[in-house]
């Protein structure tokens, strides 16, 4: 099916003719996007998978058991899609020690986590920002702070032409709208997000992602903010109560098709195939999340049973085990802080967990040692 999805504005840039694409406002139209039997089945499967993921998150004693790791896993993968090399181990070690061999890449990931947590807090607060262009700009400011791209107008809609692929707009694979059109296009997207629409919320989140990526409103960081937008919308529209869906894992597995489907929407209005692809990625990511949650839950239960069976088990050690999912890498000073206790008590708790095979010393140093809940991190990353 072919439909018009926008218009081109021709201008001169560096002495060359440039065709910048202006997407039509949402919803997709003429003909409208409707869920035929195939898409309805894909939607039903994806929605059920998201539901199972939500149940998995609700079944544990503390939301931190999964949320800390899931958010950071998404942050690592969404940043990898933009070329960073930081691993989850790098990130959690940095958060515990402020030491890393990849400072720029790790800050990229940590900034994404901060941008997501800030945005969620704003939306949840009665006095915070709603899900608007302004909120996305504030999230972008946090994403770009102190990293590559910090000189590219963080937190501001772009005032110059950008492009995707190629060395300049004249030979680019895709040229987003000219800068003067960006504010109005983003305002239209915001209006649609808060308007009534017959499309199901899960599908709408995927449509919004395409529109955002097509507008490409910032000079840098568009991919990460566009994927963050999906996470915020799923929570905003009540599909999940926390950002447990790490969609970027599936998108990265199918990265070439991801870009192909985005291009097909822009060139021929193929919203149907984009929606099919996106729903398959949602289901894949949700199913993966459920499997990971089950592994992590089983591991924590097993380790708790193993710990309680030890003669040297202490209350502090049991408390520390319960805190490890949100602090999978620790140091002695950090354990003192977490438990609100003395160094000897904290050191004893670490020693008990080492003896139980829960914590592993990873630094190889005699002083300032670092301990990791390695089995937990392996369960989160699939080994």
Describe this entry's structure for a reader.
This protein is mainly α and 383 residues long. The protein folds into 2 domains: 6-21 and 29-289, Fido-like domain (Fic-like fold); 310-381, Winged helix-like DNA-binding domain superfamily/Winged helix DNA-binding domain (Arc Repressor Mutant, subunit A), CATH 1.10.10. It contains 15 helices and 5 strands. The protein has helices at 37-58, 64-80, 88-97, 103-124, 133-144, 182-193, 201-215, 222-236, 247-253, 255-268, 271-308, 315-323, 332-339, 343-355, 374-381; strands spanning 6-13, 16-23, 329-330, 360-361, 371-372. A 3-stranded antiparallel β-sheet has the order 3-5-4. Strands 1-2 form a two-stranded antiparallel sheet. Strand 1 and strand 2 form a beta hairpin. The longest helix is centred in the C-terminal third of the chain and has 38 residues, at 271-308. The mean pLDDT is 94.
The name CATH uses for the topology of the largest domain is Fic-like fold
**What is the C-alpha radius of gyration, as a whole number of Å?**
23 Å
CATH-assigned homologous superfamily of the largest domain: Fido-like domain
Question: Poorly predicted ranges (pLDDT <50, ≥5 residues)?
Answer: none
Number of helices, where a helix is a run of at least 4 consecutive DSSP H or I residues: 15
**Biggest sheet layout:** 3 strands, antiparallel
The ordered string of helix (H) and strand (E) elements is: EEHHHHHHHHHHHHEHHEEH
Helix content: 55-70%
**Secondary structure: number of strands:** 5
Report the structural category: mainly alpha
Strand content: 5-15%
Q: Do you know the CATH architecture of the largest domain?
A: Orthogonal Bundle
Could you tell me the mean pLDDT?
A: 94
Give the strand order, joined by hyphens, for the main sheet.
3-5-4
Between the first and last Cα atoms, what is the distance in angstroms?
Answer: 42 Å
Shape type: globular
CATH class of the largest domain, anyone?
A: Mainly Alpha
How many domains?
A: 2
């Amino acid at each position: 099916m072919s439909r018009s999805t926008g218009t081109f504005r021709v201008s001169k840039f560096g002495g060359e003719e440039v065709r910048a694409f202006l997407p039509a406002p949402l919803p997709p139209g003429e003909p409208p996007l409707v869920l035929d039997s195939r898409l309805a089945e894909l939607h039903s499967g994806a929605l059920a998978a998201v539901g199972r993921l939500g149940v998995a998150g609700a079944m544990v004693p503390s939301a931190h058991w999964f949320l800390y790791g899931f958010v950071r896993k998404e942050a690592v993968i969404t940043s990898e899609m933009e070329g960073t090399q930081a691993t989850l181990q790098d990130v959690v070690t940095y958060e515990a020690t402020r030491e890393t061999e990849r400072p720029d890449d790790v800050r990229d990931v940590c900034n994404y986590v901060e941008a997501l947590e800030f945005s969620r807090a704003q939306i949840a607060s009665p006095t915070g920002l709603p899900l608007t262009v302004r909120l996305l700009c504030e999230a972008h400011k946090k994403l770009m702070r102190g990293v590559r791209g910090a000189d590219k107008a963080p937190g501001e809609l772009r005032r110059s032409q950008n492009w995707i692929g190629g060395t300049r707009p004249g030979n680019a694979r895709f040229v987003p709208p000219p800068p003067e059109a960006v504010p109005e296009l983003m305002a239209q997207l915001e209006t649609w997000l808060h308007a009534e629409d017959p499309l199901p919320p899960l599908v709408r989140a995927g449509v919004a992602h395409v529109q955002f990526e097509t507008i490409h409103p910032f000079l840098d960081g568009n991919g990460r903010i566009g994927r963050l937008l999906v996470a915020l919308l799923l929570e905003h529209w009540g599909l999940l109560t926390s950002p447990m869906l790490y969609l970027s894992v599936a998108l990265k597995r199918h990265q070439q098709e991801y870009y192909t489907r985005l291009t097909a929407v822009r060139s021929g209005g193929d919203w149907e195939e984009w929606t099919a692809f996106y729903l398959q990625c949602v289901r894949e990511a949700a199913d993966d999340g459920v499997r990971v949650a089950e592994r992590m839950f089983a591991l924590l239960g097993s380790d708790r049973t193993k710990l309680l069976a030890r003669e040297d088990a202490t209350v502090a050690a049991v408390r520390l085990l319960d805190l490890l999912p949100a602090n999978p890498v620790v140091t002695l000073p950090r354990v003192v802080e977490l438990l609100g206790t003395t160094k000897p008590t904290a050191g004893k708790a670490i020693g008990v967990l080492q003896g139980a095979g829960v914590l592993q010393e990873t630094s190889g140093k005699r002083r300032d040692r670092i301990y990791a809940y390695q089995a937990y991190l392996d369960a989160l990353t699939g080994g």
